[in-house]
Amino acid sequence: MRIENKNNEFKREYVEDIKKTIIAFANTDGGELLIGVDDDGEIIGLADAHDVLLRTTNTIRDSIRPDVTLFTECAITDMDGKQIISVTVQCGTARPYYLAGKGVRPEGVFVRQGASSVPATETTILAMIKETSGDRYELARSLTQQLTFDHAAAYFKKKEVTFGESQKRTLHLIGEDGTYTNLALLLSEQCVHTIKLAVFQGTGKTVFKDRREFNGSLFEQLDEVYGFIDRYNSLHSEFDGLDRIDKRDYPTEAIREALLNALVHRDYGLSPATLISIFDNRIEIITIGGLMKGVSLNDIMLGVSALRNPYLADVFYRLNLIEAYGTGMPKITECYKEFTVQSTIELSDNAFKITLPNTNFINENAAHLGKRESQVMLMFEESGSITRSKVQYELGISQATAITLLRDMLKKDLLITEGNGKNLKYKRN
To answer: Is the pTM of this model over 0.70?
Structure first.
C-alpha cells in the first residue's frame, strides 16, 4: 500500500502548491511526487497527462530559485493502467531552494517534516547557506534577493568602469547559482551593516555634541561618513614670515585610509556597527573583527596583507579606492611622520581600534606648557601611564625636581594619579 511520508507525496491533480513540495524535497533528502494519486494512495489517473507534465516542468523552471531542474526528473508513468505524473527530486547542491517571488525567507523556503512541507526557520536557512557556501561571508547567498545598486552604479560610472550583469558575476556579486551574494548585499542600498558616529565635547565620553548612524550601500556610507568627519577637521593657519601655512587637524589621507580599512577589513559575519568617536584631541575608529589567524600587528604595520573580504577589497581596488593591498597602515603611519604625536592601533580578539591624534590640539596645548611639562605630556604617546622615576630618567633631572614637576602638573589638572606608594603612577587627565 502506498502511503505519504517524508520522501513521498501524492496529489489528486495538478495544483500550484506542488512547487512547495518540490522545494522541500530539494532542501531535505529528496523524494517523489505523484500527481494523479489520491491522499490514501488510490490511483486516480490523469485525463490530460501531457498537459499536466508541461505545466509541472514550467512551474519547476519558472517558480523555483536557484535552478533545480538538474535535480528533478518529470515523466508520465502508467500505474494500474492509468497515466500519472512522477516527479523525482534529489537533494540539491545549492540549498536553500526557494519560491522566486518570496526570496530566501521562511515564507519562501520549505523543508520536509514528516509527510508535510513546512516553512523553514531562519536558523535552518542559515545552516543550509553555510553548508553550501562555506564559511566565507562574501560568497554566501544573501538572505535578501531584492537588491538595488544605485550608489554602486554611480560609483562605477564615475570611475568609468562597466557595471553590467557579466561584471557582477565576475566580481562575485552574483554567485554560480545566479543569486545575489552577501557581497552584493554590502554594495546595495539594502545593506544591513551600519556605521555609528558620535562627537564628544572635550577629550572624554561625558558630553555628546552630535551623533549619527549611517546605513545603505558601503559606497554611500563611505561618502557620507568622510564628509561628516571632514566638517570636524578644522583648518588652522600659521605664519612663517610673510608666508601663511594652513594645517588641518588630521591628515586627510590618514582619515581616508583608516575609514577604508574599517570598511574593507571588518567582519561582516558579526552584526555590531563600526564605531567612530570624534573628540577634541583625537578620532577613534573601532572595527569589529580582530586580525586574521597567523598575522600579527607587526606584520600589518610592515604592509603584510591578510584579507578577510578579498572580493570586497578587489571591488575597491578596481575603483581605485585602495591603491594596493596592505598599504593602509603604513600610509597612516607616514602621515604622522612629521608630528610629535603618532597614530596608534589597539587590538582585542574581535575588534581593533585606530586612533588618529589631532595634531593642532597637541600643538596648541603645548604652547601653554613649560618645556618640561611638554616633555612629560609627550611621554604619554608611548605609554598610557608614567612613573616618577621614568620622568626623572627621561628628563635627566633630580628626584626632588621630578616630584615638584609632577606635583605642579597635578595642581594644573594636567595629570591624575593611580595607585599609591611604590605603585604610584601618573596618567594624562
So the answer is: no
Indicate the length of the chain as a whole number. Answer: 429
The SS3 of residue 409 is: helix
249-304 residue pLDDT tens = 999 999 999 999 999 989 998 888 999 999 999 999 999 887 766 667 676 666 66
Buried-state track 262-273, b at ≥16 Cβ within 10 A, e below 16: bbbbbbbeeebb
CA distance 25 to 35: 15
Residue 96 and residue 65: Cα distance in Å, rounded?
9
Query: Cα–chain-centroid distance for residue 184?
Result: 12
Lowest-pLDDT choice from 83-87, 129-133, 322-326: 322-326
E strands, 40-148, are 64-65, 72-79, 82-89, 98-99, 110-113, 116-119
Rounded to 5°, angle at Cα 404 from 399 and 407? 125
Phi, psi of 128 (to 5 degrees): -65, -40
Q: What is the distance between the alpha carbons of residues 138 and 172, in angstroms, rounded to a whole number?
A: 8
* pLDDT per residue as tens digits for the range 139-151: 888 888 899 999 9
Element holding 219 (H helix, E strand): helix 218-231
Helix residue ranges, H only, 232-285:
252-265
Cβ-contact 193, 214 below 8 angstroms: no
Distance CA(266)–CA(269), nearest Å, equals 9
Q: Which residues contact 21 (CB under 8 A, 6 or more apart)?
A: 9, 11, 31, 33, 110, 117
Measured from the Cβ of residue 353, the count of other Cβ atoms closer than 10 Å reads 15
Buried b (16+ CB within 10 A) or exposed e, 118-154: ebbeeebbeebbeebbeebbbebbbbbbebebebbee
Name the residue with higher pLDDT: 9 or 377: 9
For residue 43, pLDDT over 90 is answered with yes
- End-to-end alpha carbon distance in the chain: 84
Residue 94 pLDDT > 70? yes
Task: Check if the beta carbon of residue 261 is closer than 8 Å to that of residue 267.
Answer: no
